[in-house]
Specification:
This protein is α/β, with parallel strands linked by helices. The protein is built from 13 helices and eight strands. Helix 1 packs across helix 7 and helix 12 crosses helix 13. It is globular, with a radius of gyration of 22 Å.
C-alpha cells in the first residue's frame, strides 16, 4: 500500500506542471487583470513618444547568409534613430559576416570584431557593462523583427515594476516531423508566459528577443549555458518583474531535423541543471508568488524525467494489483505509439503527441545528466542554413 501511495504521489507530481498548473495559473492570473492594464496600454503608444535610449545588441557567428537582411531589418525598426544604437558583435566569424557588417558601420551601427570565438555570454558580459544606454535589447542574428516590435518591448518598461520584457518569436519552416507538435507547444507556452506575467512574473525570457533595464544586468559566468534564464532571474532577484509582450513579434527559422531539436532540448535541460546547481538560476529573495511560478512552470518540468522514472520504478516494484498494472500498460502503449511514429514517420495526432512528449523527456533527461556532470559546452554549434 505504501508503494502504491508513493506511485500516486509521483504521478500527480509528474502531471502537475503539464496538466494542473496551466489551469491553476489561469485562475490566479484572472484576478490580477486590472493590475496590468496600465502596462499593456503603454505598449500601444507611438514609439516617437519615447525618450528611452536603447542599445540593440546582436551576437553573430558565421551568419553571412542572413546578416545583411538582419542589419537592414534592425535599421528599419520604427524607433527614434537618435535613441537607438545597434551593436553587432562578430564572434570569431570565419566567413563574410564582419565584411558585410562593415558596409553598414557608422552612426547607427557599431561593429565589434572578435578575431577569436569567445561565446555569446562572454561577449554580452563585456559589451553590456560598457554601454550607457538606459535599456539593452538582445537579438539573435537570424531573428527578424516586425517594425514596431522593439518599441512595444520598450514601452512595457514604462511600468516601474517591470525590469525585463520578452517578445514573441514565431518559428517558420520547422521540419514537418515537429510542425504540429511545436505549434501546440508554443501556443501553450505563450499562454503560460502571459498568465505568469499577469500573476506576477514569468521565468526567463526568449534569448532571441528580450530587453531589460541596463542597470539590472548582472554578468554571469562565461560558461553559462542558458543566459536567457540566469539574466532574467537576476532581474527578479532585484525586485523587478519579467513580462511577456505578445505584440512584440519576430520571426525565426525553426529546427530542420529531429537531431537538431534533440540537441536544443538537451542544451536547455543541461543549462537548467547548471543554473540550479550553481544557484544563479534560483530566485533567491523573490516573493512567494514567483517561487510558485518558478517551481510549477520550470523546476518541475525540468526534473519531470526523473519523477517519471521514479513513478515507473514504483509501478514495477508494486504488488501486482490493478492500478500499478494500469500505469505500466499506459506507459507501454505510449511508448509503442511513439516508436511507431519514429519508425514509420506516419503523422497523426494519436502518434504525434506521445512521440513528441517522450522525445522531449528523453532529451531533457540526457540534458540533466550532461548539465550535472558539467559536460555541456557553452559553444553552440552553428548550423549551415
Amino acid at each position: 500500500m505504501v508503494v502504491e501511495t508513493g506511485l500516486i504521489l509521483a504521478l500527480l507530481l509528474f502531471a502537475y506542471p503539464f496538466v494542473f498548473y496551466p489551469v491553476l495559473l489561469g485562475w490566479l492570473a484572472r484576478g490580477r487583470q486590472k493590475g496590468v492594464e496600465k502596462s499593456l496600454d503603454a505598449a500601444e503608444k507611438s514609439p516617437c513618444a519615447t525618450n528611452t535610449t536603447v542599445a540593440f545588441v546582436i551576437c553573430a557567428l558565421n551568419e553571412e547568409k542572413i546578416i545583411r537582411q538582419k542589419i537592414e531589418n534592425a535599421l528599419a525598426m520604427r524607433y527614434p534613430e537618435d535613441k537607438l544604437r545597434i551593436v553587432l558583435v562578430s564572434d570569431g566569424s570565419t566567413d563574410a559576416t564582419a565584411a558585410i557588417a562593415r558596409e553598414y558601420a557608422g552612426p547607427r551601427l557599431e561593429l565589434i570584431e572578435r578575431k577569436q570565438r569567445r561565446g555569446k555570454v562572454a561577449n554580452l558580459n563585456e559589451v553590456v557593462m560598457a554601454r550607457t544606454e538606459q535599456v539593452v535589447a538582445f537579438s539573435d542574428a537570424n531573428v527578424l523583427y516586425e517594425p514596431d516590435a522593439l518599441s512595444k518591448l520598450i514601452a512595457r518598461l514604462e511600468d516601474p515594476t517591470i525590469g525585463c520584457v520578452s517578445g514573441k518569436v514565431i518559428l517558420t519552416e520547422t521540419t514537418e516531423d515537429l510542425q504540429k507538435s511545436e505549434a501546440s507547444y508554443y501556443s501553450l507556452e505563450w499562454t503560460l508566459q502571459d498568465r505568469a506575467s499577469r500573476f506576477y512574473s514569468m521565468v526567463g525570457a526568449d534569448g532571441a528577443m528580450y530587453a531589460l533595464r541596463r542597470e539590472l544586468f548582472r554578468p554571469c559566468p562565461n560558461d553559462t549555458v542558458i543566459e536567457d534564464l540566469v539574466i532574467p532571474v537576476g532581474v527578479v532577484r532585484q525586485g523587478y518583474r519579467v513580462v511577456f509582450e505578445p505584440g512584440a513579434v519576430a520571426w525565426e527559422r525553426g529546427v530542420t531535423s529531429l537531431p537538431e531539436e534533440f540537441k536544443r532540448k538537451t542544451r536547455i535541460a543541461a543549462g537548467a541543471a547548471q543554473g540550479v546547481l550553481r544557484g544563479n538560476a534560483l530566485p533567491l529573495g523573490a516573493p512567494a508568488r514567483f517561487w510558485f511560478v518558478f517551481v510549477s512552470h520550470k523546476l518541475l518540468r525540468w526534473f519531470s524525467p526523473l519523477v517519471g522514472l521514479l513513478a515507473l520504478g514504483l509501478a514495477l516494484s508494486a504488488p501486482r494489483r490493478l492500478f500499478p498494472e494500469m500505469v505500466l500498460a499506459g506507459f507501454a502503449v505510449l511508448s509503442l505509439l511513439a516508436l511507431v511514429r519514429w519508425a514509420t514517420g506516419w503523422k497523426a495526432m494519436l502518434l504525434d503527441a506521445p512521440f513528441y512528449f517522450l522525445f522531449g523527456q528523453v532529451a531533457m533527461l540526457w540534458g540533466l545528466i550532461k548539465g550535472a556532470a558539467g559536460k555541456q559546452s557553452v559553444m553552440w554549434s552553428k548550423l549551415d542554413r
